[in-house]
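Hey, can you fold this one?
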Amino acid sequence: MELIDKVFINLAFIFLFICCIYNIVQRKTAMKKLNTFKTHNNTLQKLLDDIQCFKHDSDNIITTIGGYVNSNDIEGLKEYYFQLEGACKSINNLYVLNPNIINNPGVYSLLVDKYKQAEKFDIKISLEFLLDLNTLKMSIFQFTRILGILIDNAIDASKESDEKIINLYFRNEQHRNRQVVVIENSYKNKSVDIDDIFQKDKTEKKNHSGLGLYEVKRILNKNSNLNLYTTKDSLLFKQQLEIYY
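Sure. Predicted structure:
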């Protein structure tokens, strides 16, 4: 009987331990969902506030446009239009920053965090998200590591430039059997060597290890279906991550 009692007690402890682990996992999952909901709610509130401001100012906007038209000030109208377009893009970004569109809580949280960081430096962001993350052909862990490093670099570079621009595109190119992430940013150092930046300890940033792009290269080398193309022109520095089916 003593042996049976001991077995029963041990099984009871194991059962209680499993229940505790299950409850902890459930609570952590619930907290993540709650944090995602809070973040989305804050984004929606800002979107609503911006839309209400536009609605309130619509008469003033139209009157201002009319002033440029009546005076035939085409250059002034162009400048005003581009400023208005930038404000509209900001509202569009807030609409896209939606967990129903960016359908992975980890990626969603990462993009919201990076968006907030960019805002602190008055960086103008354009965001297009046309990718189902449930069909992503690489691990979310590796995807978010690459994405976080590339966006951090884009923020660091664009905040030093005069234009302060970041363009983010996520799309599925079914005709090419690939998923694509494009990160473009304005930059100051036009002489940067795109062949050299992936070397270990290479960095132009103060108090940085220079391991970010080196780590990206290591992840790429471990996955035969991944490519990263780095290009630049007189305005934008571009990283294009290609994930093949």
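The chain is about 55% helix and 15% strand. Let me know if you want another pass with a different chain boundary.
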